[in-house]
Amino acid sequence: MNIPAPYLLYLGHTTDPVGIKTSRGLAEFRRHDCVGEFRHDDCPLTLGLPRMSIAEGAAAGARTLVLGVANAGGTMDLPMIADAKAALEAGLNVASGLHHRLNAVPELVAIANARGLALFDVRDPPANLPVGTGRPRAGRRILTVGTDCSVGKMYASLALVDGLRASGQTADFRATGQTGILIAGGGVPLDAVIADFISGAIEYLAPARDDGGWDVIEGQGSLFHPSFAGVSTGLLHGAQPEALVLCHDPARKGIRGLPERPMPGLAECLAANLQVARLTSPNVRAAGICLNTSSFSEAEAQRLCGEAGHLLGLPCTDPYRFGVEAIIDNLLCHERSKPAPIASR
Amino acid sequence: MNIPAPYLLYLGHTTDPVGIKTSRGLAEFRRHDCVGEFRHDDCPLTLGLPRMSIAEGAAAGARTLVLGVANAGGTMDLPMIADAKAALEAGLNVASGLHHRLNAVPELVAIANARGLALFDVRDPPANLPVGTGRPRAGRRILTVGTDCSVGKMYASLALVDGLRASGQTADFRATGQTGILIAGGGVPLDAVIADFISGAIEYLAPARDDGGWDVIEGQGSLFHPSFAGVSTGLLHGAQPEALVLCHDPARKGIRGLPERPMPGLAECLAANLQVARLTSPNVRAAGICLNTSSFSEAEAQRLCGEAGHLLGLPCTDPYRFGVEAIIDNLLCHERSKPAPIASR
């Protein structure tokens, strides 16, 4: 995937902060590639980038408009199509992580073709994915799992990769969602894969490795989200993780998109994930907990991390506030006390 | 779906009896629509229908060749494409339940178009499926679940529909696999649905109903099959079943396609399915066990059913050998002892 930078990030008419997570991820992890943000007057959100019209973005050097917004179902509405059209007419490529494909809108395809511009549908999965086997494979894999969608699994995964590298380890981020794929420049959009190939897609994404390096696999959905638990289950089986990191947002009142549904308890959620993971990774263990405490004070955040860590007997942190050193220490300590790994099984 | 009957059933080069389950399902449940079976000399299997060449099938009145074979991954190999081509050239339509689509083979499309014949890809899911919500909906739904793929879930489901009808109930079979869809004339090919829409597809297939009738939903895969457990999980959540029926093949030595992997125990498997189902159906219960005892003597079959029933404290039967009355009685007795149902929630 070679999406020309720099980017103009699209917020559109979005009012829900979680709805712009793809744009926010790029703004945070590839900020040097982002010239500005495009939003309509009814959008109260900002990424702290200069607000630009599409023409201003083009004049500032943007080469691609990234439709970094999300909604349940991944639809593209008419105003969004109109904005994409305006971007093409201003000479920008357009990239999208929505289910509804840019390349499925004939009007956009026609303009892009006429102007020699590209439409990037990040959610098109690779062709010819294999069916998963669950057969033991070499390698050291960590999977982030969550109490819900959008609780910080991608952020935690990226922080764990940085933390492992800072400890002298080789580590790679394995992206499974549109934001992660845009940040990493590759990956598998797991929720767009055909159902029979979910676990196989992860075996493809994080194949056997015997260089001693780690794969940190970005989790998706939640076993406790009735819309998406099938994806989370196949991901656990395909990842064959040696360790799980549980992610949670303590401010979340109910399951995303289904507010009447209560969040699961941390202990219940971790136990369910370990149980499902054991089918392909019998010795899987929990390595830590990552909380997104962005809506709490520092003191509250410390208290929340302390309580959750005590409850589960695991290191607990907010990766962006307090770092992930405690979880990395747990991973590496455990490693030192293990017998020598089998290089290739 | 309107696939012209009668059918010529394809066995091809298949040597594994489970590999012809779609052809066998049609031979058993729509036998009056089947004129014969087509197999190559290296295929040791038969459905007990007259063996016919494609020309003989056409002469006997067959209007469609049904590629009723299955393999992990659902690929169509070159010999199978050659046979499909021969059928078209003999004036037959062709239907297939494989992942690999007939309509994706330009050579077949060209011949079909030239001759005014149709290619039916039963595994194309409906467009615009919704994302599941897990919200409580009216209706009485039974889901068959299994220790593995291909252990008799479809057969059990069809038998339960017949049994409910014989008891004066209204009941409908909700097909989720290619064989079931061919038998029922409709349904959703669940393993071909995009991963984000698995549970939503089942909410679409078996929507709220308040006529007092039952939906018997055909299960797929197994929570203990590492290739397909994601599908089974989403199916449990979308089905929102009031009762599960556990299906098992006591002759199965290891998980289908992964013979080194042991089968789960019945109690372990049932407990895991009930746990997953509770997310959207908190009062779900087990209604019975169906064993496929076709490779055992009558006495052995009775002993196996007795043992499994005793182990789990549930009625246990082989639906084709001993009927499903005990399970139907359990379903209806429980119903009579329940408070009056809420007609619509």
TrEMBL record, chains A, B:
Annotated ranges, domain D-glutamate N-acetyltransferase-like C-terminal: 131-327
Superkingdom of source: Bacteria
All copies of domain D-glutamate N-acetyltransferase-like N-terminal, residue ranges: 47-125
UniProt cross-references to Gene3D superfamilies, sorted A to Z: NAD(P)-binding Rossmann-like Domain, P-loop containing nucleotide triphosphate hydrolases
InterPro entries (UniProt xref): DgcN-like, DgcN-like_C, DgcN-like_N, P-loop_NTPase
PANTHER family: DUF1611 DOMAIN-CONTAINING PROTEIN, GLL3100 PROTEIN
Descriptive protein name: DUF1611 domain-containing protein
Native organism: Tsuneonella dongtanensis
